[in-house]
Amino acid sequence: MPVTRPQTLGALRRSPFGAPERQARTVKDELRANLLTRLAERTSVFEGVLGYEDTVMPQVANAILSRHNFILLGLRGQAKSRILRALTTLLDDVMPVVAGSEVNDNPFKPISKFARTLIDQAGDDTPIAWVDRDQRFVEKLATPDVTIADLIGDVDPIKAARGGHLLSDELTIHYGMLPRANRGIFALNELPDLAGKVQVGLFNVMQEGDVQIKGYPVRLALDVLLCFTANPEDYTARGKIITPLKDRIGSEVLTHYPETVELGMSITQQEAWTSRSGGTRAKDGGAPVKVPDLVNEVVERIAFEARTDRRIDKRSGVSQRLPITVIENVVSNAERRAVLAEEKAAVARVSDIYAALPAITGKLELEYEGELVGGHAIARELIRRAAEATFKARAADSNVDEIVIWFDGGGALQVTDDAPASTLAQAFASIPGLLELARLPELAGPKGDDGTVVAACELVLEALVARKRVSRSDAGRYGRATPEKRRRPNEDLFGGGMSA
Asked: Distance between CA atoms of 295 and 293, rounded to whole angstroms?
């Protein structure tokens, strides 16, 4: 039987919400109590946030248990915003407020003149409204044009004129985002981008727990958890954040990228949209797409390789969104190929990763040296290095001499991302030792279906290109790695050969 929520102040006083300990409980007390319950029950605190169980999450939990305002410091794509949004799961399901209040007034301890006047006039008949936990989270991206009025509030002359109030009257205030987050969570992203004079406006909220508007003697004792995000370099740079504000932030928590490739793959598979539905007509229905583990690993290793490349800006970082969007493009290219080639099922392969270059180049902030080389050239190199690292991790001791000898003898092969798997399988069969190596369980898996074997063949060839034992043109043509090719790996130096 559903519980009936009290609709008046009198009924609220007689309900469990009217208990003295509930009347005086702040939002930080509420978060703390619910977190302790969650910990005691051994249930997950933040669902969907992977890789932080032993690093970030204990520090966030300690900040909440300490009733601290806190900041998450980390590069882009490190789940900072997701963590802040997940804080709402630690709030109560619903919260009573004075009906009509703009600042979520506590019926037992109102802070606005509107609520105080209404309670004085209506008493126990004061109407009560209920706010869900998701409505108690207010998020704002800090930009240089954000003003004190945006965050705190301002006097509204139009409201004063319509209501016949003096400008100094509290009822003329147009509340900003921070007062509207009263009894909830206020998240400010990219804190250093906030103008210094606006940062000053946060002082009273964090230390004294109130705000003042337009110099009038109006004080609002806000009950709010303040949490921030920032890039570590911006946060420590002089002039980016004023020292007194930094001093008032209780806890500083550092986030990080996935520490292992396996963890990164788990995050990518959780976030990426890879389960596709078909078209509306039978003839254009999409084919099911399979992504072999080795392709997932190559995609993930691209981000790992990029994070260590000196030509890519370390201050910006390489977002976890890179492998997520790349694998989505990879699946889309395989899906497109399957429809055009009328394949019953599509299997993603390494050539599909080259087709996903647009999902890579836009996420790399290059240093000066990288700008000279070019984003596309660096992205192609990252794919080859990722393929080589994947091959090394799976089949490091494999003998590839027979394959290299075939190319050194003048063999060449054209691989395109539009070629069906059956066509490529025939072409790869002409290269001595390639199919046998690709069928190893470490590469093609225990079942080793044809599509996955073709993907493994491409992985072997890409690894040899990265080792400069085979050459590859930007058009996907493999050939002999001549001495000139070793010096200029991006140049196409071979002529005709087998085409697939």
From this structure: 5
Q: Same domain for 244 and 314?
A: no
CA 114 – CA 474 distance, rounded (Å): 68
Structural tokens at position 50:
């992977």
- CA 358, 375, 477 angle in degrees (round to 5)? 75
HSE, CB side, 13 Å, CA atoms: give it for residue 394.
Answer: 25
**127 shares its domain with 249:** yes
Closest C-alpha among 90, 86, 82, 80 to residue 228: 80
Q: pLDDT tens digits, residue range 3-44? A: 588 999 999 999 998 888 888 899 999 999 999 999 999 888
Does residue 22 form part of some domain? Answer: yes
Compute the distance between CA of residue 449 and CA of residue 468 in angstroms, rounded to an integer: 29
- Are 314 and 403 found together in one domain? yes
* Cα–Cα distance measured from residue 301 to residue 260, given in angstroms and rounded to the nearest whole number: 10
pLDDT in tens, 100-152: 998 999 999 998 888 999 999 999 999 999 999 999 999 999 988 888 888 88
Helix (H, G, I), strand (E, B) or coil at 230: strand
d(CA 147, CA 201): 10
Through-space distance between the first and last CA atoms of the chain, rounded to whole angstroms:
67
pTM comes to 0.85
Residue 243, classified by CB atoms within 10 Å of its CB into exposed (0-12), middle (13-18) or buried (19+), is exposed
Q: Enumerate the β-bridge partners of residue 86.
A: none
Is-contact 133 185, C-beta < 8 A? no
Residue 4 falls inside a structural domain: no
Supply the mean pLDDT for the chain: 87
156-169 pLDDT, tens digit per residue, is 656 655 665 655 66
Those residues whose C-beta lies under 8 Å from the C-beta of residue 303, and which sit 6 or more positions away, are 257, 264, 318, 320, 322, 323
Cα–chain center distance at 234 = 19
Say which DSSP state 491 is in: S
Looking at the fold, whether 340 and 212 belong to one and the same domain comes out as no
Least confident of 295-299, 364-368, 448-452: 448-452
| Number of Cβ within a 10 Å radius of residue 497 | 15
Number of domains within the chain: 2
Q: Which residues contact 392 (CB under 8 A, 6 or more apart)?
A: 463
What tokens were used for 291? Answer: 């992504």
Q: Are residues 341 and 278 in the same domain?
A: yes
Same domain flag for 288 and 429: yes
Dist. CA 48–CA 245, nearest whole Å: 31
Residue 428 near residue 411, CB atoms below 8 Å: no
In terms of domains, do 348 and 224 share one? Answer: no
- pLDDT higher for 202 or 293? 293
